[in-house]
Amino acid sequence: MATDRPLCVLLLPRALGGFILRDQAQDLLRSPDVVAVGPPRVPYGAIARLPVGLRGVAAAGAARALGRRLPGVPRVAVIFHPVQLPVARALGAQELWYGRWDRYEHAYDASPRRRRGLARLHERAASEAALTFVASGELQRLEREAGRDAALVPLAADAFPAPDPRTTVVAVSLGHLGWRTDWTLLRAVSERMPELVLLLVGAWHPEECAGDPDFAACRAAPNLVWLGARSDEEAARLILCADVGIVPFRVEPFNDAGLPYRILKYARLGRRTVAPDLAGARTWDRAVDVAPGADAFVAQLRAAAGRRAYPDAGLRAWALAQTAATQNAPLWDRLRDLGLAGGDEPSCPGVAGQQTDRTAGG
User: Fold this and answer.
1) With pLDDT > 70 as the criterion, what percentage of the chain qualifies?
2) Is the pTM higher than 0.90?
3) Is 238 within the bounds of a domain?
4) Number of domain units in the chain
């Protein structure tokens, strides 16, 4: 039930969770005398665009509806956009505060006529406000140039996550995310390593993981960043952002004998690979750190912290030497034996060009 308790009322242009100044609004809401109300049923902008007579009627109706939600009487009304001025006036508060974090009258999506209307509303709001507070020094200068004072209240980002960059480990996984992926391992690693940022580059296949609670947990984990399928050019640059690459495959016969392509791709950029104990991956043991189990995986990842700042030049040179012509040497030898090498035979290993596969097959 409403009382006659005086209130400072924050007229939010949208719900608090989606409001750009929500951190500062939440700080003010620590006072029991400050309340926030979301937008009225008819949007503020629609009310402000009505002809003067209809605007007053609509603003009064919106103000009455907002007032019924208040546990007291508005002493101060705080607006954050000039289109809120008609409703703020109708609310009947003794004092108006006007927050300005942008030059609304120059909005990209506003027509020239709309911009002129916003400029007029801004002038009225700034002139009527007992307190105008602005987000930047330039907005403060513009108000002073117009003969008005304004308090400088820069933005805050209290709720924005701030992992410690000194301990952060950035890993990358390149390729298919489905049947082959050990979601139990990835879940355990992500939960044990809050300092981990894992870039998952490649298409994910929920139809292959339906009903898997570990997959669902990985989809929700904030330190697993799902980037989807990317071109080879994009993928290479994402690997440059990482300290280390990983092969998060299940240890089972289908995966054990294969040679994961991504190991060589990481190595071409001077990044080592952390992988489970897969026999096939040991083919490139020059580039691989074997990690049997989640604890070992976490230890290897933590040991890689900061390597993105000094990539392994020797590993990169080794990887760049693994060209198609070099790898095909036994095939070229047999072609020569059969007299089938022909005029396209490379004169020496490493000369022939390479075809790059798509990232999703990494």
Assistant:
1) 94
2) no
3) yes
4) 2
